[in-house]
Design a protein that fits this description.
CATH topology: Purple Acid Phosphatase, chain A, domain 2
CATH architecture: 4-Layer Sandwich
Strand content: 15-25%
């Protein structure tokens, strides 16, 4: 019996039509594995994934954090901070970049967790109204708050945000996202990259954009498959929900990797010092712009919040990455 008939714990079973659509998109093996892992490991606090401890699944701790913030009368201020998105700019100088792509700009959003509160989409939309011109939009996962259970509220919230995203939109799934969300996102003209790549052309020049399925919790990534159609000498950009894939991306020959997942810590000490980053990677890889060997990367602090609807010393962001020829 297929997993879509068995997965009945917290997520609803996959509709037959959606199952066949997903099977055509990612293949039967990947789909059955992803659904099976979701079924077996949803809401697990310890074990599974690239880190041992998963704070996002420890609901009793969430309540304690919220109670502590209320007691300290910091909850309102933290919530206001969480709605004050910044528009950040990042320049990526790529030695092999075709001249036709000099100035090509990607709008990057990550970790929106759109169903956290009714006004969460409004904060993202306000930030998008301040963004200038860009060529494509990329989303690096985590569209819902919980890692299990119903997901329609997150899709409904994305439906509100989608008209404010211009041009082609490419996306990957995060550790909070079930693969069941893929048909709904695709219906909004959001092109999911599930261990695959696309060609982006400008005049006679081409670069490649690849994306992998969640590498952090579900470990559903397949970077080898994602590079199948990328020539060795081509400029390529990888979308990975978590920055934990930085070594794999560097040795696979990618020029750039864009990620999120860490929220920059979300609750930080003064000076932006994170208390926790929830990623098995060096701290310098987990926030902002970084380099590893020949790979340039950027890890977004995210546009939303998880666990608690607050931020301290770590503003949320939307990011404009501008490509520059050396």
């Amino acid at each position: 019996m297929s997993v879509y008939k068995l997965a009945k714990l917290r997520c609803p079973p996959v509709e037959v039509g959606d199952y066949h659509w997903l099977e055509q998109r990612v293949g039967r093996c990947h789909l059955e594995q992803r659904l099976g892992i979701e079924h077996d490991y949803e809401a697990r606090i310890f074990g599974q994934g690239r880190t041992i401890f998963h704070i996002e699944n420890w609901t009793s701790l969430h309540a304690l954090i919220r109670f502590t913030l209320r007691l300290a009368m910091l909850e309102r201020r933290g919530r206001d901070n969480a709605r004050a998105l910044k528009v950040r700019h990042n320049e990526l100088i790529i030695e092999r970049l075709p001249r036709e792509f000099d100035g090509f700009t990607l709008l990057h959003l990550s970790d929106m967790h759109l169903d956290m509160a009714p006004d969460s989409p409004d904060a993202v939309i306000r930030a998008l109204r301040e963004v200038g011109d860009y060529d494509i939009c990329v989303l690096t996962g985590d569209y819902r708050v919980k890692t299990y259970g119903p997901y329609q509220a997150a899709l409904d919230a994305m439906q509100r945000v989608r008209p404010h995203l211009r041009g082609p939109v490419y996306a990957v799934l995060g550790n909070h996202d079930t693969i069941r969300m893929a048909p709904g996102l695709a219906a909004m003209d959001i092109r999911l990259l599930l261990n695959e790549s696309v060609r982006i052309s400008r005049q006679s020049a081409t670069i490649h954009l690849a994306g992998i399925d969640d590498p952090h919790y579900y470990r559903a990534d397949n970077i080898e498959k994602a590079t199948d159609h990328i020539p060795r000498d081509a400029v390529s950009i990888l979308l990975s929900h978590s920055p934990e894939m930085y070594r794999h991306a560097a040795y696979a020959g990618f020029d750039v990797m864009l990620s999120g997942h860490t929220h920059g810590g979300q609750i930080c000490l003064p000076g932006g010092i994170p208390l926790m980053l929830n990623a098995n990677a060096p701290r310098k890889i987990c926030v902002g712009a970084w380099r590893y060997n020949g790979l340039q990367g950027y890890t977004s602090t995210g546009s939303g919040v998880s666990v608690a609807d607050v931020r301290f010393n770590c503003p949320p962001e939307v990011t404009l990455h501008r490509l520059r020829a050396a």
